[in-house]
Amino acid sequence: MRRPFYRVTEDEDTGIDMTPMLDIVFILLIFFVVTASFVKETGIDVNRPQAKTAITKETANIKIAIDANDVIWIDRRQIDDRSVKPMLERMHIENPQGALIVQADRKSTNDKLVRVMDAARQAGINSISIAAVDQ
């Protein structure tokens, strides 16, 4: 009489090993965290002007705010006028396809807005939008 190739005894555990599945889930979690693009906010509330032709733009990854006192904000930090261009160059290198949205307060001066847009062009950013409130 032949002996069976595999014999189950009462001492052996016949459950399913979950370790490989947990390893795969953990690797997928790390993959999604690393590849996710995080939304960067300017960190201040800006009273934007109204426009009848305002369009919602969802793909902007670089945001700059100019408050009513002409202070420039990037990533919840106040930025000096001289460091706007290097900061935009660094952000453009990190995300070459990212568009720039300038959130200028309606009481800010046109001069500050033009300087920020000029620095963005010098940094190599070609897609620049000005934020407005839809009427």
Protein architecture, described:
The protein is α/β, with parallel strands linked by helices and 135 residues long. The protein has a domain of 85 residues: Nucleotidyltransferase, domain 5 (2-Layer Sandwich). It is built from three helices and seven strands; from the N terminus they run H-E-E-E-E-H-E-H-E-E. A five-stranded mixed beta sheet has the order 4-3-2-5-6, covered by helices on one side. The termini are far apart.
List keywords for this structure.
single chain, 135 residues, alpha/beta, Nucleotidyltransferase, domain 5, five-stranded mixed sheet, two-stranded parallel sheet, 3 helices, 30% helix, 19% strand, transport, Biopolymer transporter ExbD, transmembrane, transmembrane helix, cell membrane
